[in-house]
Design goal:
Elements lengths: L6 H18 L22 E7 L15 H15 L2 E5 L2 E2 L4 H10 L3 H18 L10 E2 L3 H15 L1 E4 L4 E4 H10 L15 H9 L4 E11 L4 E3 L18 E10 L5 H6 L8 H11 L2 E9 L6 E6 L10 E4 L6 H4 L10 H4 L5 H12 L4 H5 L7 E10 L4 E8 L10 E4 L5 H10 L11 H7 L30 H14 L3 E6 L5 E2 L12 E3 L5 E3 L35 H4 E5 L4 E6 L7 H4 L2 H4 L12 H8 L6 E4 L6 H15 L12 E3 L3 E2 L2 E3 L5 E2 L5 E2 L5 E3 L2 E6 L13 H7 L2 H10 L7 E2 L5 H15 L9 E2 L5 H19 L3 H16 L4 E2 H11 L4 H10 L16 H4 L3 E8 L2 E9 L4 H10 L3 H5 L4 E7 L3 E6 L1
Parallel strand pairs: 1-2, 1-22, 3-4, 12-14, 22-23, 24-30, 31-32, 33-36
Antiparallel strand pairs: 5-6, 7-8, 7-9, 9-17, 10-11, 10-16, 12-15, 13-14, 18-19, 18-21, 20-21, 25-26, 25-29, 27-28, 28-29, 33-34, 35-36
Length: about 950
């Protein structure tokens, strides 16, 4: 019988150890209290360490080899920390609500719960086969009513809170009501709280809640019958799913007031250990900008709007203003007739300003935000027929609507300074508007561009002195920053504006017209006002339905009908909410897929708790240091998921439900696995596995030429490689090692199946070093390793430890390969070397390591065995003595480490006490060093 380590033996070993780990609960991480506390006493003295993966959406296609890259990396790190004495929690779950599952249910007639359950089972089987050390007792799915009960509970905390602008923190809504009732806070409009009826009071309070209902511009897809997130809309303004037209229209939606936390979301990035590029992405998304709000009023009409600008000092150069087409004040500004002085080019073919604006709105509402703001889009607009006053020049400037101004950014209105903004300049050229410079560029800029200062009409953002003839605030001779401050003071003094900080971050649109999502724990009374359900009414379960289709609309003018409207018996409910039994209407929208992923890391801590979303003591045990100790996932979630989760966490922190201000202490972005993909003459992807390489570097599919394209491995590109194929050919340990050896964990790496064999040979060599392939007996002896072997062993331990701490697995594997090769040359395999090798390999290839550890005579799993420690004295290189000559005559000797480089020898020579005495008064021309042999100083 052969005992050779091949695919058959690897698979047999792996399945056997996976069964044992499961049966013994090897990776169970007991809590200090509650249902999962059994065995906690074994962890006494161990530091809690929380390792977290960004959990996946379980699609029907299952995993390809690109998916587990981060999961293998976190598993290796968790195993390493466990072997270093930490109490490690590492588990897994599934983000399973959302449009893809619902659309699949519509297409196939299968309930999304059924397909989701099947997909999760597939993922669970594939992940277990990788040998991931997860605490399976903690597994969650966002679609489990026991889970989304607490998602609804957190939503009610948002609905029941407001952001106190004095502290920037969330507080219970009852505190706001008390402030209005006591007079500590002024009621809008200056009215007395006691004089307001109940409905008006509720409207005032609802206007402050962190979760609120609002008319918002959304991406409406009539064909799908639902609102889409910006990420679900293509650059061409069509749905990513199904390629249907998407329109911008106002709809009544639930919103979350994340914008009130914008500054904290920026400031608290200083509290976390995240990659700086990722922090920069979050800061840019939030988009803090200091400047001023300026009020622009229509002369004699009693209406005005605000603009925000970071350069109020350029107000003198504002020659027109622009409103977003969907701005709520547009209709009030537009007069019934064209002013007599309106140029024909501004009127176009329209009889009235209202006709012009209506036609332009009809055009722009079919465009996505990306289409409207792309640099390649020509700047278009429509004159509203209205004018506002420029406060500095005291002259009227025309007001346009234009698609390059978005309602979702700033105030939805801008003052246009074409001399200092390229978009404004392009628009001004299109419509023949004035370009009035404010800043005089430096002379070198004018010279470089060959521009006459008297005729300067190009955009410029330099820091030159202000023009001498500027009106309004006195700016002559000031720097830009001084000019900005002076202008803000001038605006505030005349009550024309105010200094402020603005943010690009908008409130979070939180409604979806879908079935497969979390129901809102909200009902509406006879006045259409939202009422929170009590906590004991949770969870609000999805009704059982067989038809999940939203009502598709022929065009964008129809009224949206969410799928839940079809569940008529569910859509209304009789409840006693303190006023006796009454009929209420349920909220028919569902929450977006983001909802469940905002807090899943907290439910992992206490997944079976039926009385709280997490026990406070359990939360403090795992999170109290810095939050999650290590969070690993793709950079594609760098902004939205992380911002949303941080926002929810801060609200929970402010309300006393969690103990840390930030959820994720350390974050690491793994790279992607790249693979060749191929497209046919239509540009459609074809199965990469069926492509044949022809002569001359060309490729064919079914005898037709195809084009090779680079990119990520994925189902849509038809270039995925199933992990099952690798298991069958080599085993899971080989796949794990190969993915970690391909390059740095944070870098993208190409998948090359041919390279797997080299990693497999390493595991075979490791096996042969310890196991006799003929008899299956161990080959280790009790001999003491020779000096060179001990040195190489302890040097390897030091390097591998350092590499594991930094998750540099590729370089750790390279050192382990070198040590294994060294061991293969030895006549005997010392136990000391064999056991250290096995323990160092264990986090990366745990199955073969467990098997070898067992065959070396150990009864227990090595999961908690101490990771080897390097002895610096044994790792040190031996010293050699070399003569130091001056002009060929030996003057003294120098002790250097064996193998020291010429640079290191030169450094030690320069530090030697005898060197100055022997070279005093001499001119050193050059230094000749033969490493390990001699150093010769040449003078002259």
């Amino acid at each position: 019988m052969s005992h050779r380590y091949d695919a058959h033996l690897a698979n047999e070993i792996e399945l056997r150890w996976q069964e044992r780990w499961n049966a013994e609960g090897t990776f169970d991480s007991p809590n200090p209290a509650g249902p999962l506390s059994e065995g906690f006493e074994r962890m006494a003295g161990r530091r809690p360490f929380y390792v977290l993966d960004m959990f996946p959406y379980p699609s029907g296609a299952g995993l390809h080899v690109g998916h587990p890259l981060g999961y293998i990396g976190t598993d290796a790190f968790a195993r390493y920390r466990r072997m270093n004495g930490d109490h490690v929690m590492h588990t897994f779950g599934y983000d399973a609500f959302g449009l893809p599952a619902e659309q699949y249910a519509i297409d196939t007639g299968r309930h999304p719960r059924e397909t989701t359950t099947a997909n999760i089972a597939t993922y669970r089987r594939q992940l277990r086969r990788l040998g991931l050390g997860h605490d399976a007792r903690r597994e969650i799915s966002t679609t489990d009513p026991g889970y989304y009960r607490w998602t609804q509970w957190i939503f009610l905390r948002l609905f029941g809170s407001w952001a106190d602008e004095r502290t920037g923190r969330a507080r219970p809504i009852e505190a706001l009501i008390e402030e209005f009732a006591s007079g500590a806070r002024t009621v809008p409009g200056g009215r007395d709280w006691a004089d307001l009826d109940e409905r008006i009071r509720r409207r005032v309070i609802d206007g402050h809640r962190l979760a609120y209902v609002s008319e918002e511009l959304v991406n409406w897809c009539p064909a799908l019958g639902t609102v889409l997130a910006n990420e679900e809309v293509t650059a061409e303004g069509r749905s990513d799913l199904g390629d249907h037209p998407v329109y911008r229209r106002p709809m009544r939606q639930w919103m979350l007031r994340i914008s009130d936390f914008a500054q904290r979301l920026i400031d608290d990035l200083d509290l976390v250990d995240w990659p700086e590029p990722l922090k920069r992405m979050q800061r840019n998304w939030i988009g803090a900008a200091d400047g001023a709000f300026i009020r622009l009023s229509a002369p004699g009409r009693g209406i005005a709007f605000e603009v925000f600008t970071t350069r109020p000092d350029t107000l003198y150069g504002a020659t027109y203003a622009v409103l977003a087409p969907e701005h709520p004040l547009v209709d009030r500004f537009v007069p019934d007739q064209w002013p007599g002085s309106t140029p024909q080019a501004w009127r176009g073919s329209h009889a009235t300003p209202r006709d012009a604006v209506a036609a332009y709105r009809a055009r722009t509402e079919r465009l996505s935000d990306r289409q409207r703001t792309t640099e390649t889009t020509g700047k278009t607009g429509a004159f509203t027929g209205a004018y506002v006053m420029n406060p500095v020049t005291a002259s009227p400037i025309p007001v346009f609507v234009a698609d390059y101004v978005l309602m979702g950014y700033g105030t939805g209105a801008i003052m246009a300074v074409p001399a200092h903004d390229q978009r404004d300049l392009d628009f001004a050229h299109t419509y023949g508007l004035a370009v009035r410079p404010v800043l005089r560029p430096p002379a070198e800029w004018l010279s470089e561009h060959g521009t006459d200062p008297a005729r300067w009409r190009t955009a410029f953002d330099g820091n030159g002195a202000y023009r001498e003839n500027i009106a309004g605030p006195e700016l002559f001779g000031l720097t830009v920053q001084e000019g900005i401050r002076a202008t803000i003071e001038w605006l505030e003094r005349l009550r024309l504006g105010r200094g402020a900080r603005s943010y690009r971050l908008r409130d979070w649109l939180f409604s979806r017209q879908r079935y497969w999502g979390e129901p809102f724990p909200i009902v509406y009374d006879e006045h259409g006002m939202p009422i929170a359900l009590p906590d004991d009414a949770l969870p609000v379960l999805l009704p059982e339905m067989t038809d999940f289709r939203p009502e598709p609309q022929q065009d964008d003018t129809g009224t949206p009908v969410p799928p839940l409207a079809k569940a008529k018996e569910w859509a209304t409910v009789e409840l006693d909410l303190g006023e006796g039994p009454k009929r209420y209407r349920r909220e028919l929208n569902t929450m977006p897929q983001w909802a469940g992923s905002c807090w899943y890391y907290l439910r992992y801590l206490d997944p079976t708790n039926k009385t709280a979303f997490v026990d406070p003591g359990v939360e403090r045990y795992w999170m109290a240091a810095d939050g999650v100790d290590l969070y690993v996932g793709g950079v594609e979630h760098a902004v939205l998921h992380l911002l949303y989760a941080r926002f929810w966490h801060k609200v929970l922190y402010d309300l006393g439900h969690v103990s840390t201000p930030e959820p994720f202490g350390r974050l690491f972005n793994q790279g992607s696995v790249l693979a060749d993909a191929f497209t046919d003459e239509r540009g459609m992807f074809v199965p990469a596995a069926e492509v044949i390489q022809a002569g001359g570097g060309t490729f064919t599919y079914q005898d037709r030429p195809v084009t090779r394209r680079a990119g990520r491995m994925g189902k849509s590109r038809k270039n995925g490689v199933s992990p099952g194929d690798v298991y069958d050919a080599y085993g899971a340990d080989t796949l794990r090692l190969h993915e970690m050896a391909m390059g740095p964990l944070e870098a993208d790496r190409p998948w090359r199946t041919d390279d797997i064999a080299g990693v497999h040979r390493f595991l075979q060599r490791l096996w042969r070093n310890i196991i006799d392939e003929e008899t299956g007996a161990t080959r280790v002896t009790g001999t003491v390793p020779d000096t060179a072997t001990l040195r190489k062993l302890h040097q390897t331990i030091a390097v591998v430890r350092d590499d594991f701490e930094g998750m540099r697995y590729n370089t750790a594997i390279a050192r382990l390969m070198q040590l294994t090769t060294h061991a293969a040359r030895l006549e005997e395999m010392p136990r000391e070397l064999a056991e250290a090798l096995v323990l160092m390999v264990a986090p990366l290839a745990p199955h073969i390591a467990e098997e070898l550890w067992s065959r070396l005579g150990h009864q227990d799993s090595l999961a908690y065995a101490p990771f080897p420690e390097a002895d610096p004295s044994l790792a040190a290189e031996p010293a050699v003595t070399i003569p130091v000559q001056i002009d060929g005559r030996t003057r003294f000797t120098l002790d250097v480490p064996a193998g020291a480089s010429g640079e290191e020898i030169e450094r030690l020579l320069n530090e030697h006490a005898d060197l100055p005495r022997h070279t005093a008064g001499l001119t050193v021309r050059r230094l000749v060093i033969v490493p390990g042999r001699i150093a010769n100083i040449v003078t002259g």
